[in-house]
Amino acid sequence: MSSDGLDINTEATIVIRPGSLSQIILEPQSVSTSPSEQLSFSVLAIDEFGNPLTNIVTTFKADISACQIDAFGRFTAGAGAGAGVYDNAVVV
Asked: What angle do CA 92, 41, 32 make, to 5 degrees?
């Protein structure tokens, strides 16, 4: 700001606090794989205002008859022969 030859500068720190966790999106939401095939899942956490949340700790859980999944979302399809359909096989 400038007035009568005087310059005034100031700074402010703004802290934006996220809202409460409102939604978790697992990607991909649907997959088709071959036996023993590997792929990765990811998670997007959204606050009540639609903003993405960071530093969220996630835990993956899988239907053991369908697959295995590690703590990082790395999925390995079951090795059994034959086509199988597993609804909600991965939970976060």
From this structure: 110
